[in-house]
Amino acid sequence: MKTFKLIVALTLLGFSISSCRKDAPKIDGPSLEELNGGFSIVDPFYVSRDSVDFSAGETVYFTCGMSKTSNWKITITGQTSGAVKEITGTSKTITMNDALWNGSTSQLPMFRNELCDIQLTFEGESDTLVDQVKIKGIKANAGYVIADFENGFNSGWGSFIQSGANMDFQIKTDNFAPQGDDYLNMAGTVNWDWLIGLINFKASADGFVTYPLNANGNNVYFNAMIYGEPGLINSIVLFQFQEDENGDGTFTATSDDQYDVEIKVDWVGWKLISIKYSDLATLVNGAPSTPNGNQQHNPNKIKQINMLHLANPSSGPAKTKLDYIIFTENGPLNP
Questions:
Q1: pLDDT surpassing 90 at residue 14
Q2: Which domains occur in the chain, in start order?
Q3: Could you give the CA distance from residue 119 to residue 54 in angstroms, rounded to a whole number?
Q4: 161 has which bridge partners?
């Protein structure tokens, strides 16, 4: 009997100890051994192609293996354009899912058909791995291009340029363009008026009554590349979107909607401006106002887009550049 009681007591004690035992904590992330160990490359840096035609839908991917988890960065730089694409991550291995390039850029200008230098660097490490890839065809961007100035000044557009000092409202052709080879250069000094010059981009210049865009303003994005001149921050670029509400073939200011965006160019270098069409407001002397039409954003009814280069007449010379005006759907332009 005593033996039986002893067995029961030992069994209950075992259950008690078992119920109080905690499982070892689960540790996420790299081990201490990995973190404190030396850094080395265990699988060589691999670039999937020597040359790539992005226009045909081809892509390039990169792989590499490291001895420990690291913060890494792949930098692709165009030798001709100076365009830069950066791909970053934190991992022990770089796979095609981590580092796939479709020809896009992280920093304007856009890439050209050119040879590109590739660098793989690691935070806190001196190792730098290099390679090259040649672009045979640039990435195609989906959207409707209003103007990229590659074919000069469309005879169907309208324009007005003031007769101020050092006026320059010309299309330039050089490697300075953020897309292609051409851009619009705008400069001058006008001390009696805010307007320096303007261009009317008419749908009729492309053979349309209104631009062939999606009817839903929530799905349409307006994009343009604008350059800020070093030392000059007084340029203003104003876009006016004039809709033909009743389809009579004309824009009537008193009964049709006009939406606007005023951009103060207070940065240096090329910058991509992207705006959802439904976010545009009607401006009167720079202040929001009520549209005169049906008060609905209808991109498919845009008959004309006016671009005005403005500057305070007391501010002295103004200068900026413009390129690649394009409408995209379902998101901003990813150049």
A1: no
A2: 34-137 (2.60.40.1930), 144-329 (2.60.120.430)
A3: 20
A4: 197
Q: What are 147's strand-pairing partners? A: 325
User: CA of 133: how far to CAs of 8, 136, 153, 201, in Å?
Assistant: 76, 10, 35, 38
How far apart CA 217 and CA 151 sit, in angstroms, is: 29
pLDDT tens-digit map of 190-249: 999 999 999 999 999 999 999 999 999 999 999 999 999 999 999 999 999 999 988 899
Residue 63 has a CB neighbour count (10 Å cut-off) of 17
Rounded to two decimals, the pTM is 0.85
Q: Whole-angstrom Cα distance, residue 135 to residue 35?
A: 38
Residue 109: asked if its preceding bond is cis (omega within 30°), the reply is yes
Give Cβ neighbours of residue 212 (< 8 Å, ≥ 6 apart): 144, 300
pLDDT digits (tens, 9 = 90+) for 278-287: 999 999 988 9
Encoded amino acid at 80, one letter:
T
DSSP 165: E
- What's the CA gap between 226 and 319, in Å, rounded? 11
C-alpha distance from residue 265 to each of 8, 213, 273, 312 (Å): 86, 27, 11, 13
pLDDT band at 175 (very low <50, low <70, confident <90, very high): confident
Question: Average per-residue pLDDT in the chain?
Answer: 91
- The encoded tokens of residue 119 equal 């660098």
What is the C-alpha separation between 196 and 161, in angstroms, rounded?
6
Ranges of beta strands (E only) in the chain are 41-47, 51-53, 60-78, 84-94, 100-101, 115-122, 128-137, 144-147, 158-161, 165-173, 182-189, 195-202, 220-228, 236-243, 258-264, 269-276, 282-284, 287-289, 302-310, 318-329
